[in-house]
Amino acid sequence: MPIIFHDRTFCLVNMSGVMATNASISQSNAVEPAYVLGKYWAVNQVPQGPIKSTFSLSYYPTVSGDPNYHILNTVRGLTDDVLYSGTRIVIAGVTGYNCYLRSYEIRSSPNNLVKSSVTYDTFTPLSGQISPRAFSTTSDWGDLTTMTSSGDWEDLTVMTTSGDWGSIEDPVLEFFDRNPHGWTSYISSSGNSLIAPTYDFSYKFDADWKPTYLIGQKFPTQVNFMRGTEEMSFVRDNFTHIQFSGEEVTGTYITGDWKIDLFNYQLISTWNNSGALTFDVSGAKIINTKLVVDLDNFVRAATTIRRYY
Fold first, then answer.
1. CB atoms within 10 A of CB 233
2. Domain-by-domain residue ranges, the chain?
3. Average pLDDT score over residue span 185-206
4. What is the three-state SS of 255-292?
5. d(CA 126, CA 132)
6. What H or E segment, with its residue span, contains residue 108?
7. Confidence of residue 158 (pLDDT cuts 50, 70, 90)
8. Which of 2, 31, 119, 273 is 20 to 30 A off residue 225, Cα-Cα?
């Protein structure tokens, strides 16, 4: 097989392309040594947990059509997780089914594009082999319907009856002005920007999924969403004292709702707002606050807030 470089690969999440800068797939097999009386060495290695595959992506998000952002909102709004079966991810020809969002992180800093990273776990077998994408004169993605002799690619254009897979989009064809930027990131309260300037912030969501197994089966019969944690850290030049344990961010830093809006980069030049990534962190509690002073830098305060699901 010829060597395949990054320009011949692609990443799909729920059948939509992402502007990935790094992608990886890792598999783990939980085994432990078995010891018995009368034997010094282990007699065997036996399974002590499920086989799990992890998909990790680092990428530049867009304000419209970011599949990971939509999956995040789906997971946050789950009311009957028995009906939720995860999503499908393809990295360089290797496909994962029933992938569940374990973590989502987004960070904004001055003078830089906003960056995101996600992690998905699946407890079902993967399919496909490392394969290059085909080039075409009509699309940079080439012909994604082409199947290999072993059927590794399958038919990537097929949609389910409910339209869950959506359509394949080429992120390379998306203009960079649709990406959020540090210049177009705003933290606001009831529509008004906070008085104290914000120099840096990050948002992270972690989910805990529990697979359920039956005797005689290697793969789970269902996977349940157990709990979630939402955390935001931000840096300002205004230090606020924590007055009591369990203090909410509302009433201390702000009055009313608190939202993070990441607008498209196009807003800078044309003031044409074609969308935004919005994170509502109202009701979160203050976890810690830290005053930092060092050489060749200004005095700043880092604060972390958290909310549980």
1. 18
2. 6-308
3. 69
4. CCCEEEEEEECCHHHHCCCCCEEEEECCCCEEEEEEEE
5. 17
6. strand 94-108
7. very low
8. 31
